[in-house]
Model the fold of this input.
Amino acid sequence: MRLKTLLLAPALLAFSGLTAVPALAQKAAIPGGLVHEAEFQRLWSQNGDRWAEEDKEIQAKLAELEAKFGKKPNIIHILWDDMRYGAVGHRLLTDISGYEAPNLEQMAEQGMSFTRMYTEPSCTPTRVAAATGRLAVRSGMVFPIFPIHRMGLPASEVTIAEVVDDTYHTGFFEKAHFGDQEEGYVTNQGWDEAIFSLYNQFAGQAFNGGAEDQGYSVAYSPDGYDKKYFFDDTFRPLEWMWTVEGTEGGDHREFSTPKSPEDYIEANARMWERTKEFVTKHADSDKPFMLQWWPNLYEVADQDANRPFSTQHATSTAESIKKMDAKIGELFALLEDLGIAENTLVIAMADNGPMEPIHPETGQNGFFRGGKNDVTEGGIRVPAFAKWPGVIEPGSVAGDIIHVSDLFNTFARITGRYDQIPTD
Done:
């Protein structure tokens, strides 16, 4: 859980699951005071001195960048849904998958590919791990949250937005999936401004009469309920919110609860525009920004919206990936136009493996066994890429084992807030 190597540009930026801890038998003492298991202590005793020297190089490079740009680096984390390792990013593999994502391919060429990026096996746990730097089991957020669960991210959790605090402008747009308790709203968890979904994208598409009319869901309306054995009339989410808009310390309001698949697509389009507005608004600020853009992939309920298919895979999933990739290209172009590309780290990755039961939409796995909700490689090993012009060496590859929670400490180091990480 620390930034392992950051050499002078052109450079290789690598992330590792090895976190700085107090010295025991080892010579080098690294600040942080984090508590770790015996296995890590054994590795630290063998490698601590070397890692301490690497930390000095990291700090020197970060200081050089801050002197050049007058502020610490911006950070953008892109996290999308349900994709197997190898599905995007490299032409030899995408020719097999049938997906088209040229901007992610360019990101890999101009930046870094991670060959062993691991996540949790489903949406909510991965997103909680990314936000808190902790395994989701510690907060109880271990499965995808839906309205029936009536639960959310506990207020006691410390997010990366709370770690960077007022030293950064923080924004969160689209899919949070932290549940529906107000204490778990991202703007109550440290983010300055946000438009965020309480549940996943399938709730946004399927929990409405319009989706039922199109055959995407069944028995949503009361006349479709069981006639003999139905005892719980609160089971179906007839009164709920999908997305909320708010600011830290301010009011919250319902942003969108789609009544049809078309409403869902329109809401995503509005959230994307607000994402770009956030970047533009803070580009020239004295403070850097940190943006979590976790898009609501996929748009599959309205099949007509994806026709005619333009990808070799010929599914709504593939069309959604192509549309998201176009937005990623638009985002990189915006960073260039604003003159902040060289001071912005962008990380893009999937949150878990594909949903095998809905093959062929997301069910092609290829390399590894399993998919979403499995703890096999197919469920938790995902495509991931990083780009930081002048810092990450183009075309580099990181083979280290990395978990999504490791990004928490990496972001804390880059933002100069490592000493604010909770020590438990």
Remarks:
- Residues 114 and 398 are 5 Å apart (CA to CA).
- The longest helix spans residues 38-69.
